[in-house]
Description:
By secondary structure, this protein is α/β, with parallel strands linked by helices. 26% of the residues lie in helices and 20% in strands. The strands form 8 sheets. Strands 1, 3, 4, 6, 9 and 12 form a 6-stranded antiparallel beta sheet that branches. It has a 6-stranded antiparallel beta sheet with strand order 2-5-11-7-8-10, with no helix packed on it. A 6-stranded mixed beta sheet has the order 32-37-36-35-33-34, with helices on both faces. Helix 20 runs antiparallel to helix 21 (968-985). It is globular and about 100 Å long. The protein starts with 11 loop residues before the first helix and ends with a helix.
Amino acid sequence: MPRTRLRTRTGTAVLAATAVLTGLLAGAASGAAADDPAPVLVDRFEGEIPFANPPADGIFTWGSDADDQPKLELKERADAPEGSKVLEGAYDISGWGGLTHDFAFDKPAHDWTAHKGIRFWWYGQNTAPLPPGSGKRVNFELKDGGANGEASELWTTSFTDDWEGWHLVEIPFADFQYRADYQPVGGIDQVLGLNEMWGYALTLPPGAPGKFAMDGVELYGKADPALKAKVLSDAAVYPVDEGGTAQVKISVATTGSGPVDEPVTVAYTTEGGTAEPGRDYEPVSGTVTFPAGTASGTSKIVAVATTKDRTAESAETIPLRLTVTGAKPPAETPQVVVDAHGLPYLDARLPVKKRVADLLSRMSLAEKAGQMTQAERNALKSQGDIASYALGSLLSGGGSVPTPNAPEAWAKMVDAYQLRAQATRFQIPLIYGVDAVHGHNNVIGSTIMPHNIGIGATRDPAVAQKTGAVTAKEVRATGIPWDFAPCLCVTRDERWGRSYEAFGEDPALVTAMEAVIRGMQGSPSGKDLDRNDKVLTSAKHFVGDGGTEFGSSSAGSYTIDQGITKVTRQELEAVHLAPFAEAVKRGAGTVMPSYSSLDILGDAEGPVKMHANAAMINGVLKDRMGFKGFVISDWQAIDQIPGDYPSDVRTSINAGLDMIMVPTAYPDFHRTLQDEVKASRISEARIDDAVSRILTQKFALGLFEKPYADTSNLSKIGSAEHRAVAREAAAKSQVLLKNDSAVLPLKPSQKVYVAGSNADDLGNQAGGWTISWQGSSGKITTGTTVLEGMKKAAPDAALTYSKDASAPTDGHDVGVVVVGETPYAEGFGDVGNGHDLELTAADKAAVDKVCAAMKCAVLIVSGRPQLIGDRLGDIDALVASWLPGTEGDGVADVLYGKRAFTGQLPVTWPRSEAQLPVNVGDKAYDPQYPYGWGLTTLSRPPSGGEHTLRAIALAAKLLEATGRADSPEARALVSQARLMVQAKIGQHVTAASAKPFAQADHLLLGGDVTGAVASLTVAYRLA
């Protein structure tokens, strides 16, 4: 209840605030108890606490992406309840976002044990009277225990903004609940340790723009002694076979882990649930007592015995009600669950089709809707919602990680969610998904592969398959059976912020690299999916996301991502659909539509959002291509479909989507989907088809038999064996564009000068989608930078490192300047959205200084080509290093000749941004370097000119005649011809020679060996 409190300021502000309170809260208690301690001010927002990031004492914002972080300011206001300033904020949150005040890390935690609760002034934004509880909900969290505010426990409660104007919000500490969905350090003691407080946080409401103002955060009232102890159960769910006995562990824990001050009694009784007492279990009741002086952590067991009636039935629940005296009770009532048994869908000997049909026939509409719902783990209001809504799936968005962010913590986290699914009627396991797009890239210490653009540069399907296999093994070891990869986009404009997620600009190259699916899933039949080293794949983004037109995006400040792809029907089929047809053949288990819109020129329909495109999803993907898996939406993507939310739901489901990545509004989606079915706007047959597809994959993955993590491969995560695969991929991805005077490979005897922003930055060389969604610079995980790799490759070499090339350059034999981009992901990386294709001024200066002083090799570490033409004359060797991942050793391997340069350009390297888009096959084609370009240090080009080319052509014809057009011998022949042409062209690439040169690689990838040689012969003559 609101209370009158001391003021530090008199005048109009206080009078105004008092008047508002008097009007809105008439009849409320106004005086503090005589023995209450004086209020203790926490924040006045007068500037005494700065805006600062941890580990400083300060206020900072956070969010699921940059747009979701609220904008804050300390603002002078005449009506400020406390002092002269208040904290004001504006927000527009699609995922989650809020603000935190962390107390100083270098000082002791605060002690709040003397007080009853925390209160603050909140400026309500509602202009119309609302009944209590109907306004926007704001979550308020406390941080207790641990080393600091970012390594503490989280305790949460909420209030609703039901008022207009200033209102005093009082929250007793007794209202705070242990946050069950996320804990920064995985939990400490699950006791609100008021003696070790590290700060507070507010999570603001998503879904619509909003504003807020707050002031005067303070502690109030007298402490509740019961908060010093808490009763816990070691789990919320206790599955047990029929006839078995569940052992429910009840413990007592205290603030500061001292002994309990007074006796704690726990009365227990089996009550309620779906199991029948006497028939399904033996009822129990009684009391356990923890006397005064009992050590914190002491436990006692309550046994609940179930009975065997030999009847096939679904799972049944037995809640164990706990009534606690002398301590705070558990946040949830523990439940014993008698496992489902004897039903056909549980029989692993039956064909999957029969198991699916049996289970589907038993499910309610609500249960089916739950299977079609995917929520973000951080958005769960309670872990119990997994069972309440019968959720089919959870995901970790980019950066949604447990703490500590370690493989073991991931496995425990996923298992905890799976345990909740065991409390549902049919115990349908969750299918947990994650964006492991270049290794298990959210996990610190995992093996981070080159991004897809680098894998495309290898031109080696075997490497693609091996990287997929490593990724799958590491992902599955953490209990995750589903990977939102690979991206089969065909990047047609490198201004796109996702272009590095593509294998290249040529659909033939993308199709060739789809060997990665075999590495991840195994057999196209799906028979390997239940192995502990395989995961379900997701071919994305269907269809055309790499072809969006620059300037067509309407998503925030994006310029091209999520825009409109305008293509003819022929181009759609040849460029964008072809890779998905191959993915279906390879057995990809799921497909994810694109955020983008598709505008097929000439059909008069205009742009259609892909998540609403029934002609493409139902008509092409499912009907024509015969896709048998399920279609999963992208993050909150159905919200972009024109219309209201019910329209979004029915349009997407009727278009062929089977599961919706909600990801935060799962209660709304679950309810709306059922309403649409009941109103006959979505047919029950469509629902059954969707759920059947989802269940089929869950059965194939073996999740019904083994829902929990098989951790036998945890030790392989980031292992030397796995890093060797990433190292090979990084080496083979390096594309040597220029090598005058054979500057590369380096010799260990040379004195080398190393400079540039990306020479010694692990985060930069890994790129976006590394540990967090957008990635970040610095030592963000375990790995080897390019500089570190060079030191290891030539440990006795004389090497000078100067990031900005400020160190003296005299006396060096050769310079290596490693430059390029800093991390970004999706539309945040779009050119025109704060990005361009130019090197930074510092990188340009480093190149200029080093290359003027000595022979130099320049490595460009980037997700797309950078404009370098104006400096090419001063550069002796140029390498497209792409984003090689954590294994800089692989880059060093080719620099020092331990491996040969063999990579080829997966995209055309433009002369200027004005040329974009520019792609192989274009009528006008005059690049800096053509698609497929790549010098080698493996061997010298053959001599003999056209005579040799004719011999190569004849051999190619013989190979084709014998059905060996796709053989290593055929590729080697074309490679020899390519090297001859490159040697003749040198650095004088012209439009005349570039066009047939690029076309040759496209023809080779399509299996036309003789055509490839013929095209190279034309390029040779025009060079």
